[in-house]
Task: inverse folding
């Protein structure tokens, strides 16, 4: 008979606070050594309220750490060519150290083409193909922000990932795939599940053997708490709006009675993700001042 446990909460707000303090010290040291502070630019197309709210939270975190953060609003009807020309201008500006393209973008904009126009040294989100390639080879510290936030949560448990059975549910370009590479770098044994795993009826089987489970699908309570292996670490990346509020991809209340550690939604991965964006900004700044 399995013993019921009650998970410790992986508090993203507290972890974000700790990481911000570390970055704040680094910014002070860099300013003392160089006389400069990293200048980060978020390029937003249009003026969507929810997007602006997220950008404002980024600005607040940047200011807490001591970075310069600028939100640039371009017209909703800006053309692909005009946007790329503007990005090239920022690439050439030595006073700009980090650039991101705020999502979502209008349907007439090819996000991937624009992202790949970013100077790889200024790529705040680590999504330029050159940076993804360098991450595969372990040659960059500019890492996609959500996967980086997941790794910080796992480190905060104090558990070694070496040899651990890790299951990642979700194979997206921005979370699942880069996260699997980061986990492999730590010598975890990684399984990546996706829609075809579910179609084959094998999702529950994979989840049931995970010592560490990371779910990033975007489907409310897709993973049932009863599927969780006793004592597993559960990191829930999903944020889903439902009738009663916001929930993750994991059935939290049941899962917390089986897991050893679990992230809440909200208040788990999200707060740390924003801090990882700022860490990328500091890394980009360091790369540029070394040139």
Result:
């Amino acid at each position: 008979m399995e013993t019921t446990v009650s998970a410790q909460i992986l508090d993203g707000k507290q972890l974000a606070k700790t990481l911000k303090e570390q970055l704040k010290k680094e910014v002070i040291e860099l300013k003392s050594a160089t006389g400069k502070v990293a200048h980060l630019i978020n390029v937003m197309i249009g003026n969507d309220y929810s997007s602006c709210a997220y950008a404002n939270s980024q600005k607040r975190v940047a200011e807490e750490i001591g970075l310069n953060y600028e939100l640039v609003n371009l017209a909703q009807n800006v053309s692909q060519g005009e946007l790329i020309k503007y990005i090239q201008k920022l690439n050439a500006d030595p006073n700009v150290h980090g650039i991101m393209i705020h999502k979502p973008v209008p349907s007439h904009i090819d996000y991937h083409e624009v992202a790949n126009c970013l100077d790889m040294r200024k790529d705040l989100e680590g999504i330029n193909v050159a940076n993804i390639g360098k991450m595969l080879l372990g040659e960059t510290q500019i890492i996609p922000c959500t996967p980086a936030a997941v790794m910080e949560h796992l480190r905060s448990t104090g558990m070694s990932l070496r040899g651990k059975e890790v299951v990642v549910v979700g194979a997206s370009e921005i979370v699942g795939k880069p996260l699997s590479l980061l986990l492999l770098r730590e010598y975890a044994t990684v399984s990546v599940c996706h829609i075809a795993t579910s179609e084959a009826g094998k999702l529950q089987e994979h989840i049931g053997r995970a010592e560490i489970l990371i779910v990033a699908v975007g489907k409310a309570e897709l993973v049932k708490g009863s599927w969780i292996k006793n004592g597993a670490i559960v990191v829930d990346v999903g944020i889903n709006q439902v009738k009663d509020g916001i929930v993750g991809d994991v059935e939290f209340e049941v899962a917390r009675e089986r897991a050893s550690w679990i992230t809440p939604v909200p208040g788990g991965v999200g707060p740390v993700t924003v801090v990882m964006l700022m860490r990328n900004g500091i890394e980009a700044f360091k790369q540029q001042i070394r040139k």
Notes: The two ends are 61 Å apart (CA to CA). Residues 12-34 form the longest helix (23 residues). The mean pLDDT is 95.
